Amino acid sequence: QVQLVESGGDLVQPGGSLRLPCAASGSTFSINTMAWYRQAPGKPRELVATIQSGSNTYYADSVKGRFTISRDNAKNTVYLQMNSLKPEDTAVYYCNADIVRPGKSGNYYTANYWGQGTQVTVSS
Length: 124
Description:
Helix content is 0%, strand content 56%. The protein is mainly β. Strands 2, 4, 5, 6, 9, 10 and 11 form a seven-stranded mixed sheet that branches. A four-stranded antiparallel sheet has the order 1-3-8-7, with no helix packed on it. The relative contact order is 0.32.
């Protein structure tokens, strides 16, 4: 079984910083694209940032220049460094990953996984 576990969510003042790690555990062969999404109350879940296995990154316009996504492949972990936080960044942040796993017949397959979410609140 594969699990993605986020941590690091907290209450922070506007202008502050947080770093969210997300670690994958279980039977994994490799991890392709890793991503962070967020969902604010009453709003749909939105893509925040992605990082591919070759370290190419993508950012939503709303976080560009303030957030940085990175990964440590040896630790199967993706990070989201959030700086200059704003009240509108308040949301539950979810980790997502495409994970390659060994199959029962000696083959490999890719499946998509979500973490359970971590709450980030930006407020004075």
